[in-house]
Write a structure and sequence with these properties.
Length: about 375
């Protein structure tokens, strides 16, 4: 049995105020292109089932263009006569009952099955049962729905659990009010042939809490494009899942617009410019880091001059990272560096004052662990 799992396609997302030749926001068009690439591959693979684990659209009330594009692409899926099961994510779920869930537009498709009512729903076929748990605004009701899922496991069929939530990152997600899957219910995964997850934007297996071990059958497929330039991944994918005597989960990578980082060392500014390579930036998103910058240099170096060095790039952003003197223990320009650096600098300053280096080392590891996930939850990344 072969299943295609994809997620977090965020149709309708736009950014950077750059238009393509059709007067469509270029980043919005990138998301449509990534989605079409997945559907093109599905046509070639011809799986037994297709599943989408949430955030089909970027907003619960998407634009007409995003809706029109989705209807066209799902007509292609419907015409393949392959069952497609789809759940709502947090971006596709209205915050109030006054709005109609957007996934209702697919209910008249013969081969499209949707779950969006913020409760457990079993979608069953002759050989397999899909246990769907869409995003839930009221987290207090989630465990009751998980219990229903457990009660409905089919012993004589394959069982696929589909969720759009955070699994294994309770320490981070609770601060943002998202649905966090309860750790004490993770044992249910052992009764499933595959646990298909949406919400995190990177492909990977879920860790068992408190260990380095990964669940062998619980995977996030990741997003198909980036909803933040903090997400530096140059690879996005969907997942081909094969279930027979064993489980095989294989990422299938798609082509996305690259993000390229360039560094200019302002301690030797002229030499750094001379050795700068701009031959690989055509149509890319380029981030230029000006490092070891002094305040006087910052006045002289114009952002427009830096951007002019990368004329073939689609977009260029410039980040200024100021040089510290030997007596400085704080960052000169908070806005010019990352939030992680700023936070660590303050922790370091406190540890110097208290002469507690072990505490700094402990907190440094914790901060880096948290910020390794930061690009998944900052801004619009979930």
């Amino acid at each position: 049995m072969k299943i295609i799992h994809f997620s977090d396609t965020h149709l309708g997302y736009n950014d950077l105020d750059i238009l393509d030749e059709n007067n469509i926001n270029q980043r919005e068009a990138d998301f449509y292109d990534a989605f079409s690439q997945v559907i093109n591959q599905i046509e070639k693979i011809q799986p037994d089932y297709i599943i989408h684990t949430g955030d089909l659209f970027h907003r619960s009330s998407p634009s007409n263009r995003a809706i029109t594009f989705a209807l066209k692409e799902f007509k292609r899926i419907n015409d393949m006569n392959i069952p497609c099961i789809m759940i709502a994510g947090n971006h596709s779920t209205p915050r109030t009952n006054l709005s109609s869930p957007i996934l209702k537009i697919f209910e008249d498709f013969e081969n499209i099955y949707v779950s969006y009512e913020q409760k457990y729903k079993k979608i069953e076929f002759d050989d397999i049962a899909f246990h769907t748990l869409p995003h839930m605004n009221d987290e207090t009701k989630a465990e009751e729905q998980i219990n229903l899922c457990e009660e409905n496991i089919e012993k004589d069929k394959k069982n696929i659990m589909m969720m759009h939530c955070s699994v294994g990152a309770w320490y981070l997600m609770q601060e943002f009010g998202e649905w966090v899957y309860p750790t004490h219910k993770e044992y249910i995964f052992e009764s499933m042939d595959y646990v298909a997850l949406g919400h995190w934007h990177g492909f990977g297996a879920v860790s068992v809490k408190g260990t380095k071990e990964k669940y062998p059958n619980a995977f996030y497929s990741g997003s198909t494009e980036r909803t933040s330039l903090n997400d530096k991944r140059n690879e996005k994918c969907f997942v081909e899942v094969t279930i027979d005597d064993t489980l095989r989960v294989e990422p299938k990578y798609i082509n996305i617009r690259p993000i390229i980082t360039k560094e200019i060392n302002c301690e030797d500014y002229e030499t750094s410019l001379e050795t700068l390579d701009s031959s690989d930036v055509k149509d890319a998103i380029v981030e230029v880091r000006l490092i070891n910058l002094t305040s006087l240099q910052s006045i002289d170096i114009q952002t427009s001059d830096i951007k002019a060095l990368f004329k073939e790039a689609m977009h260029v952003s410039v980040k200024r990272e100021f040089k510290k003197s030997s007596t400085e223990s704080t960052i000169d320009d908070i806005e010019a560096v990352s939030l992680e650096e700023y936070f660590l600098e303050h922790i370091k300053e406190d540890s110097i004052n208290t002469q507690d280096t072990k505490e700094y080392e402990r907190l440094e590891l914790k901060v880096k662990e948290l910020f390794s996930k930061y690009e998944e939850v900052a801004d619009d990344t979930i």
